[in-house]
Amino acid sequence: MVSKSSNATRKTVYVLALVAAVLVGAFLAPIVSDAVAPEPDRVAVISVDGYISSNTADQLEEDLEEVRENESIKAVVLKVDSPGGSASASERMYLAVNRTAKEMPVVSSVQGMGASGAYYTMLPSEHIYATPSSMVGSVGVRGSKPMPSGGNEIRTGPDKASTTMDQREAQIETLKRGFVGSVMKHRSDELTMSRQEVAYAKVYTGARASQNGYVDDIGTLQKAIDHAANEAGLDNYEVVEKEPANRFGIFLFSERNGNATVVVEKSPVGYDGVRTSEFLMVYGQVQYEDEVIGNVSA
Amino acid sequence: MSQRNLLGGVAVFVVVVALIVVGAAIVPYAQAFTSSEEQNTTNIAKQQYDASELVVTPAPDSGTVTMDSNTESKTVVIDVAHENDVSEKGIQPLVDALVANGHNVKYLTRDDARQNFNSTLRKADAFVVVNPERTYETKQLDALRKFEDAGGRVALIGDPQSAEGMSLFGLFAPMPRGESGGDAGLTSDYGITFGSSSLYNMHDYYLNHQNVYATPQSNSSLTDGVDKVVFRDAAPVSLSSDAGSAVLATGAQTKIETSRQSGPFTVAVQGDNVVAIGDSDFMSTQSAYEADNEVLIGNLADFLVTGDKTEGAPAPVSTGQNSGPPRAPA
Transmembrane stretches, by residue range (chain A) (predicted)? Predict the structure, then answer.
């Protein structure tokens, strides 16, 4: 009787140990497998959506930095659907894409709109695809005219609060030169038009843009992914998508009219906020009190 | 299990844990040190942009508005009675030049225009009209004709206006769609019409494509000493062959914004007693000292005070003053 009981206890212990071992093994197996298996090659698809703000630029810079540091990612596709936005944010995004394009193939795919600052962003791309009805172009800069300086404050200099019309026009012309110059730098071999014609800031349908050199070809996102993978020499690859960040915060909303309103602390001398001008690379109607446009139809 | 084995086990445990903890503490510092070395990355922005090629600097304003004429004191009337789109700053340099040279500058108010239009012109030597937005009465137009026929000087200065808003008073009749020709009203007397659309030049401009350059086209008192002027938001001016001479025109690459018709375009004309200029900004405090604008302003001031108007013209009308209600824009 004692021997039978001892054997049963031993069997129970063995079974429990076996079950525990299987459970632990099942938990650890994929971790170990992932740790030791080689990572597959990947093509990263990064979205550039909506109005381009400083937050959009922050997000894209961060995404592209991750892409550059991730050895499994061999190529990038920019999935663009944006009318542009802040000039400084657009410029930052252009530079971030430019840095990435020096390390791996970057291909862009225009979904609906790839205008102004969004077009600036994808200029370093090795290839730009657009669908026939998408809108591309609007290479120009705009900004509000200087506001008359108020007479109820003391300033340390005549241009402390605002600026002159000449100075504002010169600033916008400077930004325009940077934008148009970048277009010519990246796409002069493809473009069928002169620098002055580009500076008209027209938008073109994807169909027309594929003829005048603003884009390289008519094509969908999948075609852009295939192109990027091919440029990177990939036969088997995974696609990883980076979704756009939420960029509809209150601050961004206030940026949309071209004058970012920065709320400061309630002041004992009566200031409720500060209105600062912002230069825009955006296509479409913008509500301004008054504006200077760097091109005919920016 | 002996006590010695137990202590040995505890010691191994403590040493291993200590190594792991110390290692975990050191690794971030090591990584930070390594990454700080790697952060010395290429300055992409500097590679992409050459600031010396990008930066645009406004030309410094220079010069003063001077008048060459040395005539006796004259009276220049500036029309503000017809909802003229002109501010004090918009004509201050011209007014300052006239006053500094001993001439009188008066503003024609709406009440004066209703009740004393004829008598105001009778006392005036020159009449300046800038961007009127209310139509002139027929009797006022008759008086202006007689004023000009009698040697009174008239300056018509207009910016591009929308075609819908350009009914005005016939003096500034619009060209259809910003081009030439069209109903001229009283301008048929002068043979002058103003375009309703802005000019621009994408090749040769001052700071912005809408700030076009204009250069003299013929010898005239209005352009004497002018090499180049800057017109912000200029309108083309057309004239019939007997209306005078085109005295300022834009470059050949100038275009009309609405039609994209290419220039060159006349932007200032001068007849015996009438000048017409398709821009008012050139004489504003903002633009008066850009390029040779100050020379043009001085020449305009000279033109206004060097007429030879017959005294007492225009004669009083026999049946009441020109006091009818203003006509609504057509």
Answer: 12-32
